[in-house]
Amino acid sequence: MAEGTRTMRDEGVSGTLFCFGLGYTARVLAERALAAGFAVRGTVRDPAREQEDPRIPLLPFARHRPLADPATALADVTHVLVSIPPEEAGDPVLDRHLFDLLALPRLRWLGYLSTTAVYGDSGGAWLDEDAPPRPSLERGRRRLAAEEAWLQSGLPVQIFRLAGIYGPGRNPLRKLLDGRARRIVKPGHVFCRIHVEDIAGVLLASMRRPRPGAIYNVCDDEPAPPQEVIAFAAHLLGVPPPPEEDFATAELSPMARSFYADSRRVANRSIKRELGVALAYPTYREGLRALLPVETGTVDGRPGRRPGW
Fold it and tell me: Which residues contact 78 (CB under 8 A, 6 or more apart)?
């Protein structure tokens, strides 16, 4: 079995995983952990509004609504994932449950999901984990402050700086099919990306080889201009790509415009060299090809490489 698909059971790792924030990425990790023999519990804002999975007990959590019975909720927990973003007031998990986490006798891994936005703008230059963070956006500054707080917490924390996440239901193919795709062109601008399944693979690899204090960039091998990715997705679907729009004159919300503020190429050598990760989707091309039958509802195989791509 390939390194990128080996399970924790193969390595003799098991336990109880608790996910603060059982969202898009955490649910993929939860599925993989269950398959490896883990027990999994997690939090959502309102369990009554979530689709039930009898394998994963859900508990309500928010800053204004901390865990009602932390000792019971966290009993026997060996691994913790924190995917809840920080707020203006700070990190809600750290603020509400630091001492509960410190009291866990079997805790051996805590993963904090951060973002490559902590690096700020490099003008398209390559950055690795040794590059000093210089966030230019408020969300990046909050993430960096949360990273530092977690690393100083006394817990076995590993930081994962995620690039732009895509996967089933959240990708350029889906945007094209829904009529929401745009090709915004800002010369020289590139984005980094990562398939959600590869994020789960990196987290599992770290759980096999914990190193408290470690920081990992989690991204694929090829940063690329967003308009190029949209064009490739349209090519796979066999539809014309949306017209190019100049970033300078395009009508964008402040949030959408902010995603073009920073241009950087983020290196992923550490997850490969230290954790032995082999990405299932090393570029957006492999990722989108694999997602095509998912998004179009086809069942017979995957599309092959077409001429010119």
Answer: 15, 16, 17, 106, 107, 108, 109
